[in-house]
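Notebook, student rotation project (T.W.).
Task set for the rotation: take a protein with a known small-molecule partner, predict the structure of the complex, and write up what can be learned from the model alone. Partner molecule chosen: calcium ion. Sequence and SMILES entered below by T.W., checked by me.
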Amino acid sequence: MKRTCGVLVALIAVVLAGATPAIASEKTPSKFASSTDADLQKKIDAHIAKYGGKQVGKNQISWENPRAVMTFPAPTRSADRTALARIACQTEWFCLYEHAWSDRDGGGVLALHDYGVYYFYEYGWNDIASAWENTQTGHARGNVFDTWDGQWTYIFGGCAYDYQSYVGDLYNDKADSAALLAKC
Ligand SMILES: [Ca+2]
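Predicted structure of the complex:
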């Protein structure tokens, strides 16, 4: 009897350990990470060669019509790196973050500006978003979709101002497209 109890306790302990949810705050390496300024430039050059756009400043690529800006995280050995690794979303944009806000690694950001539809494959951003922030003016709406085989499934979004510091395990790394609308 005593022995059975011991086995049972051990089994419950194993089950509980297995059920522990993944913690979003764990540091995840960014797909866009670099170690030095030269390494960052190499990554940006490679991204532009594949997805077009124009380099802006040290760590951004900009596209026009519709207007979008992708920001690469600062190199790991750069002085620009702060304790709060998350890149701020500027006012009047809809931002998609590579990592949850609690993730100290920060990761990259894709910021969308104009009303209309965006296909993330055009920016090398399919299945990446883990968080979002809508800082557009006038309660403008941002809808984000997982697209598969011609089907668009709405997965998250909201009217300005709104955000999700983490979209949840079900929709994490799923987003493929977005629509920005003037009305909520
Ligand atoms: Ca997807």
